[in-house]
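Re-run with default settings, no changes from the original entry. Doing this only to confirm the output is reproducible before filing.
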Amino acid sequence: MDFSRNADVKERRIKIVEGKATHGEVIMKPLMIGDKMTLLEIQYAPGAGAPLHVHRHETVAYVVKGKVKMFVGNEEYVLGVGDVCLHPEGVPHGVEGIEQAVVVEIKSPAQPIEQFLGTEDK
């Protein structure tokens, strides 16, 4: 598929990331999955997030709305609207909503979402 309309993409609750349980309300929309990258929109409620985990892909995370705290390796960052953070492949990272937030993530190389996320339809 070469086109995706956000309003038509079904929201899914993220319950598990790389085998570790998330906390609070984390909602994901898989907006586009290509041969080499995946584009996700993720919503974090205040206090909600994912514990430290490791992926077999790198991720670029861009904050569209709100504020989040991101942990990458031994570093901790507070990101607001327009801020960007890189999660390198193989480096422990996590995220927590500070206020209601929307983050867009690009993951590469593309992997089936089910390989690293456990979700349920919202």
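The chain has a mean pLDDT of 93. DSSP finds no helices and twelve strands in the chain.
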